[in-house]
Task: structure prediction
Amino acid sequence: MHYISTRGQAPDLSFEEAMLTGLARDGGLYVPQTIPALSPDQIAALAGKSYEDIAFEVMRPFIGETFTDAEFKALIAKAYSGFGHAARAPLVQLAPNHFLLELFHGPTLAFKDFAMQLIGQMFQAALGRSGKRVTIVGATSGDTGSAAIEAFRGLSNVDVFILYPHGRISEVQRRQMTTPVEDNVHALAVDGDFDDCQAMVKDMFNDFAFREAVSLAGVNSINWGRVLAQVVYYFTSAVSLGAPHRQVSFTVPTGNFGDIFAGYIAKKMGLPVERLVIATNQNDILHRCLENGDYTKLGVVPTISPSMDIEVSSNFERALYFAHDRDGAAVVGLMDELKTGGGFRISQNAMSALRTHYDSGMADEPTTSRTITTALAETGELLCPHSAVAVHVGNQHVRRHPDVPMITLATAHPAKFPAAVEEATGHHPPLPPGMADLYERSERVTRVANDLAAIQAIITERTAT
Ligand SMILES: *Cc1c(COP(=O)(O)O)cnc(C)c1O
Result:
């Protein structure tokens, strides 16, 4: 299994190399050269199996020779052992044909744990074998960083630096990043927004001298290993509703497009997915783009669903690559326009390719809040604001297409965003046991200017041996 860049100008890599590298050297994102398929019989045979067994069957064809079957099974088992629910990703019913996939039972209470816990295990196994040391640098709008720090804290071959926008993440998110005591954990609070943080991480990857000097590795949602780990719960949930014999649709609260792109891969592998519905908050660049083909930045506004306050949706590049029939040059053209002109227009052909798979919808702030209130009253389900954005958009879609079961992804635990949840419901959502002392632990963080050179200097200094 080979991985190629969406911009067509970087070397092909193995799964292990693509995972350890993150971003390709031409600025592109790695995608598998071919997408392996599971037959309807193979999909049917997943019914009734454990999350871990399905994870093995779904991911095995993508990892090539990187791990033996026995090793890979052991890594999967360890990755999910710390989850607070035996089903790992339980499915609950909201309405006659609308289901909620709870992806927030991992150690940092957001769906990012599904990918990050597995990546942590895979990094440790691969680096342990080679004796190499890497520096992980990531940008976060809140949940990626906490999941990454939780997955990599204390690992001997890794330093982890996380850039987050100062003052723009929830207190629980911040504390999950600033309270781990291990020396290999470095939380950096940047005076800027998430797109600033993400742009600086991209620039560090494009600074090849720096990249070599500190052995940079990326675990942002562009990392192929993360997308792959997220493909699994599309299978577990669809199969539990009768796939491959019955179609399903998914609504996904979307920011960087990693989660929903995993749904596209599941579809390409043979899962009968009718629609993949992109749900955005007021930062609705993806929704506008699906409506009229125009991807133009307007500026990010802070919302109560901060993990989706994004305008440069990095994994959308992968969707564009497939919508342009794997034409790397076309992707380079669009990305250049985005960088220089702040936006691009998508051709008619590519738009119809996107519309074959994706739909979209948006929830503004009052709607999001109201959805939290009504979901609690009507179903007893306490939603985080991101999940509420998606439930609203999922409801709209179910009304228009009542025959296909809808699975809406719930991406974070309500206790991770207590202010918005309390405002909407009057209930203060408690943290699960084991995390209850989070507010008492002491914090450790470095405040930094929105300045690439200054941040690179900190990383160089702290990783010098
Ligand atoms: C990261 C995140 C999202 C967005 O996921 P993408 O893969 O970036 O589209 C949605 N909800 C929550 C709670 C998140 O942490």
The radius of gyration is 20 Å.
